[in-house]
Amino acid sequence: AGRDREAALECERAFALGLDAPETWLVYGRALQGQRRYDEAERALASAVAKRPGYAEALRDLGQLIWMRRGDAAAALAPVDAALAGAGGPLLPVLAAVKIRLLNHVEGPQAARDFAEQALAASGGDPRLALEAAQLLLETDPRRSLALAGAVLARAPQDASAQRVTAHAHLALGDGPAAAAISERLLARDPTDQEAAAALATAWRLSGDDRYRSLWDYAALVRAQTIDTPRGWSSLAAYLADLQAALEDLHALAAHPIEQSLRGGTQTPQNLLHAEHPAIAAFFEAVEGPIGAYRAAIGQGEDVFRRRNHGGHRVLGAWSVRLRPNGFHVDHIHPQGWISSACYIGLPAAIGEGEDHAGWLRFGAPPIPTAPPLAAEHYVRPQPGLLALFPSYMWHGTVPFGGEEPRLTIAFDIVPQPAA
What we know:
By secondary structure, the chain is α+β, with helices and mostly antiparallel strands. The chain has 17 helices and 9 strands.
């Protein structure tokens, strides 16, 4: 629920009662991290690992925290390397998967691919590692990616992850109809599957099927509006100045988190919904009007997006990103969202009106390799106080920018809320 202080207190109560499980230390470490008590958080996560040396979740969180604090790849990988050295049997693939994902973010995809191939061979073709390797091989060897995913499907035909990787491999090989057929089956199983919707739109576009425009209708579904001035501030400029100062104080880490879209910057580790600073708390008042206007403008319908536009809504999670010069967001979607967002709080002078769209929000460029490649189709120029809203299944990313100043944003996801 993002209530880190209360979570930490409950863990401390458990310790006082003599309860000392590694799971409790993991929760304690996460709660301390959410409070920016980073030294204590690292010690707590290390305690979880000490009590269970093969604890994959704790190893992932510990490696990520070390990376975000110091930007040191070797130090971030050291705990999982130590665990792998002493592990055997069914634990090896689980820990290898942790290392693959860490490697991908701290040393790059080639290092992750090399290790994934080694781990897959050593495991005798473990399905988890097969899918990790298949996803990484989309860029360099999509036929092998297709074969690896197919081997998993032969053993588990209903495995959604294997079906998804298979669809991505078809896209990389230029077979839009095959990718579309798989994505349609996934959406029929779960109409809220944002990853399947993104793959389907990509497959239709790759095939020259104009139905993709119903999913990626940028004119209707991507809208940008200035946020309201919340109560207690005389102007939006005054509010944004206070909000920027409050957010800058939260960006105390050195590097991006793993398994996220961010490259070259930092992301706040806590859910801003529970921030106590008045300027951050007021943000959710400032965006409620634009969210309501967006929902009214998109209307209702039977497509995968509009069919959920009824009843109320709630913000699922909110975070801030501080991009350094040359930083960017890899094109991505938000699998848990319905409506996603980007709100611009502080912008560098390097973001202007040039044709290179430096620092702009872009849509339509899939991170999945396709044959032929598909470029971005739509851009939103950031402005202070501007809130962009769009479907969570739309590929979106950030064009890198130069200069010497950072770019500060807040993002959040919205999900439908049934009427009480």
